[in-house]
Amino acid sequence: MVYRGKPSKGCRNCRQRHIKCDETRPHCKACTRTKRICPGYLDSFELMLRDHTASFKKSSTSTSSTLGTKSSPGTSGYSPSSTSSQVLSTISAKDFISAWPPPMAPADFYQPMEHTVIPLWFNSYLYLPQELHIRNGFMDVLPSLYAKVKSGSHLHLILRLVNDPQLTLYPQDFMATKLWENPMKAHLKGAVALLNDRKSKNSETPVSPFLEHTVQTQIIKSSRGMAGQTVRTTEVWPLAQPCNRPTAKSLLSSITSGIVLLRSSWESMLSNPPDEIQAALILKKATEVDIDLVSWTYQVPPHWKPVAASIIPQPVRDAGIWKNRCDCYPDIWITANMNTARDCRILVHNIMLGCLRLLPSADPDGSQAATMRSTIRRLADDICASIPYVLGNQQESVRMNPGNIVYPFSESRPVTSTHIHAAPLHGAWQLFTPLRNLQNPDLGLPPEQVAWARKQMERVLTIYFQR
């Protein structure tokens, strides 16, 4: 017999039979000798949390049977003890256990939906581990602003409109987003006007730097690629001034702010008769921006550099992979910054190619143009190689179950829990702008690569809009 004073480490069969278990793995000899299926062994933590369900059922059964036999025959009239004994005798132990405690929830269990959904949204989109020097713009101050919202303020009215169940019946806003009527630029123009008004009134607040950085980032984002007109910048540009201790993110924001003016100059030149002098000036400015972007790629921290994936699961390959290549990064925010630099370089090289067409004497043998086209293809391949890492095999919204998505990885870059939770929520949105710009026919990419990018764009739209 085993010592009953402490939990036995033997298998479940030996502990139930109260015999000595030799703890042979994977099956003890006692179970093997008696031809029983050995259920295995519990770890030390499970031994500390002993299961008393069986003993509780046994004691409840014996208690109910004892109470049932205490009712004396021949007694008449009302007796609380006899009545309770009769009731207990008609209820089995199993029913008694399943019905106790009664199904009563705490008074504050059923809370309003916004009290649950809003904290869940903050935890899913804001409070995720990421690089310390990477910020989310206005999203970083959104929790504090939401906590201090006053009745009647603009934010309070917006929240009421969003939470209004009657307004959700009108599909105009959703269809405008789904059909890509580009409402973002309209909001961005309004934000630029508000910032200009705040600058003129000197109404600076602690939140102003975050809002200025956000508006600047969105203006730069809308200027990448050649689709549509450039949004007019604020009166003071760039908005976010260089900080005392620049980081890789702030340096990239400062460099890419130059592409807004570069593209505006390019659009202005195209709207007028060709001017070789202006084309030469734009070519010079584009070359300077490209040199700054190349220098930035050498200044980023070493762990920002991509690593080729050594394991690419088959579901990821089925979802889409370009040229059998996949690169892994520390997280999706670093991936987004690297793709931003690549996307901006593609725009710059595309403008440089346009300038060379207007300046035949600047490239008589066409070697510079050939080098620029090769650079555009290489940058496009780098963007395509990051897509499997960001999306994995995701084909639709995860609906709070990200564990079913698999991702490629390498020995030095395993899949982290942060990536599993953050990538399904943020990843596809970060890929939208690069994928849209890769479909520009002026880039001269191979038709099969453009078709692949278009298919991945459909995948992104399906993830967010369930098309």
Automatic annotation (TrEMBL):
<dbReference type="Pfam" id="PF00172">
    <property type="entry name" value="Zn_clus"/>
</dbReference>
<dbReference type="GO" id="GO:0003677">
    <property type="term" value="F:DNA binding"/>
</dbReference>
<protein>
    <recommendedName>
        <fullName>Zn(2)-C6 fungal-type domain-containing protein</fullName>
    </recommendedName>
</protein>
<feature type="domain" description="Zn(2)-C6 fungal-type">
    <location>
        <begin position="10"/>
        <end position="38"/>
    </location>
</feature>
<dbReference type="InterPro" id="IPR053175">
    <property type="entry name" value="DHMBA_Reg_Transcription_Factor"/>
</dbReference>
<keyword id="KW-0805">Transcription regulation</keyword>
<dbReference type="InterPro" id="IPR036864">
    <property type="entry name" value="Zn2-C6_fun-type_DNA-bd_sf"/>
</dbReference>
<dbReference type="GO" id="GO:0000981">
    <property type="term" value="F:DNA-binding transcription factor activity, RNA polymerase II-specific"/>
</dbReference>
<keyword id="KW-0238">DNA-binding</keyword>
<dbReference type="InterPro" id="IPR001138">
    <property type="entry name" value="Zn2Cys6_DnaBD"/>
</dbReference>
<feature type="region of interest" description="Disordered">
    <location>
        <begin position="58"/>
        <end position="83"/>
    </location>
</feature>
<dbReference type="GO" id="GO:0008270">
    <property type="term" value="F:zinc ion binding"/>
</dbReference>
<keyword id="KW-0539">Nucleus</keyword>
<keyword id="KW-0804">Transcription</keyword>
